[in-house]
Structures are given as C-alpha cells and as structure tokens.
Amino acid sequence: MKERIATPTKTRQIIQKNSFAFKKGYGQNFLIDSNILDNIVSSAEITPEDFVLEIGPGIGSLTQVLAENVRRVLAVEIDSALIPILRQTLAGYDNIEILNQDILKTNLDTLIREKNDGRPIKVVANLPYYITTPILMELLEKHYPVTSLTVMVQKEVAGRMQALPGTKDYGALSVAVQYYCDAEIAMVVPPSCFMPRPKVASAVIMLRVLPERRVKTLDEDLFFHIVKCAFGQRRKTLLNSLSNQGNLGLSKEELTEILRGLGWDERIRGETLGLPEFARLTDAIIHAGGAKPAEPDTAVFR
C-alpha cells in the first residue's frame, strides 16, 4: 500500500508544492482523515470487480483508496488546475483514468458505454456542496446504469434525502431520492476532517438504486411536476399550490373535486403526502384530463 494522501501533512505538502489555490466557486474541501476514507469505501460495498465513477476527486485522496479496492476508477474533475496534481499523486496506479470535464456537461451514457462496455457502475464521491442536488438528479433521472451512489454531502442535505412525510426536512428532494433509491446515512463527518474546514458537518449517504421505481404512475414527468409544485410554497395548501403553479389545464374547482375524490381534505398540504399518495394524485389528474404543461419546468428540488 502506498503512502496515503489523506493526512494533514501530506495534503499540505501537495498544496504547497503545486502552489494550489482553493476555489470557493468549486466548493473544494479535501479529506484529510484516512479512516473516513476507509469507512466510505466500506459503506459503498464495492468489490474488486467494480467500475467506479468518482466526481470531484480533488487531489486524489479518495481516488487512491478506491483504486486499491476496485477494478477501475474514472475520476471526473472540473478544475483544470488539479489535473497535473492528480497525475502526480496517482502516478503509481494503472487502473485510474482522469478526465477534466464538468460532470453536468458530460455525456455519461456514452462515457459508461465506452469505458465499461455499458455495464452497471457505482458512484462514490465527495460531492461539491453547491451542486450536490443537480448532480444527483442528473444521475437518477437519466436512468444511467448506476447501481448505487455513495456520496459525501452536507449533513442537512443527507437528512432531507431520507426524511419522512410530515417532518420539517421532508421535501421534493426526499420524494425524488426515495422514488429511485433506498437511502441510508452511513456516517456523520465533522468539519475537522477536511482541509479547509467547511462551516457545516457532512454525512456519507448510501443510495441503493431500486431495480424498479418505488411507486408506479401513469406519467413520471407529471408526477415530478406535481411534487415540485407541492413543495414550491410550503405554507400554501396543496390545492392552492397546484392551482397557482401547476398549470395543469384544470380549474381550482376541478382540482378540489379530485382531492375530495381521493378522500382528502381540500386543506391538505403537500408535505403530508408520501410517494403512494403523490402517485394516486398524478393518476387522478390524468383521468380528469389534466396534463403537465408544455413549457419548461423551472422548479428545483429543495
């Protein structure tokens, strides 16, 4: 086993040797606790036969440990200043490929097909906090052949991913993640494990992608449009949210009848609905002649 990158001394040496300057815009925080890295790899349930996609490898701390435990690692790094550093720190490994790309502008379908013959992959990453949700939604919504995602995120965001209906953390992100995955927080990681130290605690969450969606609905796009509307203005009732933002082609009176037909009080709020209820609501709206609007849906997961 080679000397670990993930120690305070080694990390500082690499940064100083290369005159590397942290970029706040990229949310760069490098892990400096080797035990945490071992725990991440253990939580990811990886095997020597696995192909792993790592997003945002930084100086290669996690990449190194992954390479020692899997068949191949594809590390995608957006910061061009880190590419020569990664080539130095990971020079002794022949099962790592480094790409200088923006993961959100990368054709992952083509990449997985070319690099792993289209076979399923696993994602393991210390995700940049500022772009966690877009990355996760890209990986889940596009139906890429990904069997699991083990990612370091803000502790608060990890809590939202596995939150249950009726709790303060429950929202559109909770529904989206649980629609596609089983979510389990593996560990909480304090700021002291990073260089520089972030202002908040982090958590590693393991998302096992389900072989089938957790619930069935007649229209997945409409399902998520309704979910986004329901949580767009949390203080409003579900009826008002759908009426004001939904643009479903149905009047408020028609939406009221749909809710009553489902046996719900018209004052019900979106945060009380679980996935089965959102699916029932979606199908009821379709049966009533409603549909997802043609214009782009600009609502975001929260």
SSE pattern, N- to C-terminal = HEHEHEHEHEHEHHEEEHHHH
Over all CA atoms, what is the radius of gyration? 21 Å
Number of domains: 2
How many beta-strand runs?
9
Taking the alpha carbons of the first and last residues, their distance comes to 41 Å
Q: CATH-wise, what's the superfamily of the largest domain?
A: Vaccinia Virus protein VP39
Class based on secondary structure composition and strand pairing: alpha/beta
Kindly provide the name of the CATH class of the largest domain: Alpha Beta
From the spread of the alpha carbons, the general shape counts as elongated
Percent of sequence in beta strands: 15-25%
Poorly predicted runs? none
Count of DSSP-assigned helices: 12
Q: Which whole number gives the mean pLDDT?
A: 94
With strands numbered from the N-terminus, the spatial order across the biggest sheet is 4-3-2-5-6-9-7
Helicity range of the residues? 25-40%
What is the structure about, briefly put?
The protein is of the alpha/beta class and 302 residues long. It has twelve helices and nine strands. The two termini are 41 Å apart.
